[in-house]
Amino acid sequence: MGPDAAALRGELRELVAEHVPPGYLGAFTDDPADLETAQKFCRLLAERGLLCPAWPREYGGRDASIWEQTVVREEMWAHHEPRGAQYMGVNWVGPTIMRHGTAEQRNAHLPPIARGEVIWCQGFSEPDAGSDLAALRTSARRDGDEWVISGQKVWTSYATMAQWCFLLARTGRRERRQQGLTIFLVPMDAPGVEVRPIDTLMGPHHLNEVFFDDVRVGAGAVLGEAGDGWTVVQEVLSFERVGIARYARCERLLQDAPRVLGDAWDALPAELRVRWARMLTHCRRARLLAYRVIATQQEGRVRPNDAAAYRIAVTRLDQESADVLAEIAEYTGTDDSAEAAWFRLEVEDHRRYSHASTVASGSIDVQRILLARALLAAS
Ligand SMILES: Cc1cc2nc3c(=O)[nH]c(=O)nc-3n(C[C@H](O)[C@H](O)[C@H](O)COP(=O)(O)OP(=O)(O)OC[C@H]3O[C@@H](n4cnc5c(N)ncnc54)[C@H](O)[C@@H]3O)c2cc1C
């Protein structure tokens, strides 16, 4: 992590303590103040060069190491992600536009992300295309200098608040279904875009359906080569999978538990304390698997198998630690202090998300297949 990581962690924790109000459980609640907190916090990080530290200066970063960016990501996830939905722009939208965008696209899109001003959503999944993403039906056809997009996306996180959509659509039929797909950068206020929220366990403002009814975009909306979107998507998913440092949240909650329980900690069954300790070991494992992916990214490479290994580890950690934490939280049952009540709320929030974690960012079964294939091919 380098010598400055601890100081950076300290700085970030101070900023969170000072600028994120008590009781903040993320930006996607019914209270608009939570979204406002996230927007303000992003701008604050941006002003201090902490939103995209590892980006080049010309795009609003400060050429810091990718490990500093990792510290930021960990501290944000550990504290209920006060960047709100903007973590996506920093984690994968920006880096992908940096790698595949034209100079015009880089200049148009990267500085607003680095300033914390813009929210992106990801339009990949469809009602009949999730794990089998290449089955997608949303299409884009050429009409003179423009493209006309029609179709439906589903499970689109943050679409109600996003200004831009990173959309995958079919632009041609080829021998392999993975060919003939194209990435479009689509403004969400374009005529013909309609968003319908889906209520879920994770709160009312997370998931959505997005409909595209003959939405017109110019040729400059295509990211990379038309028809070559699949290559870009593989990179996006690898960046995305490692960009969510859920292990940092698990670790903080696990470490908070003995302090919150105080004397009651000694009353926990020995078996539960053993599982608690095991979860801390699993946190370390997930962290190291994430670092392996980050180290290859630093060399400019992307290895989807490593990202899959991390995703499997962190998803299992999410769910197993949620169970252990929920059992531990029961032992605070008679404690009505603010600290105990907050711990119970945090654990409940963690547990609700963990149910979705086997599917979000790609189903874990499919990750296992991907990893097994890679290992068998290598043996
Ligand atoms: C919280 C959350 C946020 C999301 N955000 C977004 C977003 O912003 N943008 C976006 O585009 N999508 C998003 N998604 C959608 C997500 O990417 C898909 O749900 C995921 O890829 C699985 O696709 P599916 O829902 O169609 O399920 P399916 O692919 O139909 O899978 C259903 C079940 O079958 C299993 N399965 C499928 N294929 C196989 C196989 N070959 N072998 C064994 N088992 C298999 C799966 O593991 C799963 O258990 C989000 C999902 C969640 C839960």
Structure report:
It is a single chain. The protein has a 4-stranded mixed sheet with strand order 1-4-5-8. Strands 2-3-7-6 form a 4-stranded antiparallel sheet, with no helix packed on it. The two termini are about 30 Å apart. Helices cover about 50% and strands about 15% of the residues. It has 3 domains: about 5-120, Acyl-CoA dehydrogenase/oxidase, N-terminal domain (Butyryl-Coa Dehydrogenase, subunit A, domain 1, Orthogonal Bundle), CATH 1.10.540; about 120-230, Butyryl-CoA Dehydrogenase, subunit A, domain 2; about 245-379, Butyryl-CoA Dehydrogenase, subunit A, domain 3 (Up-down Bundle), CATH 1.20.140.10. The protein has 11 helices and 8 strands. It binds flavin-adenine dinucleotide. The site of flavin-adenine dinucleotide (FAD) has 19 residues, from strand 1 and helix 11.
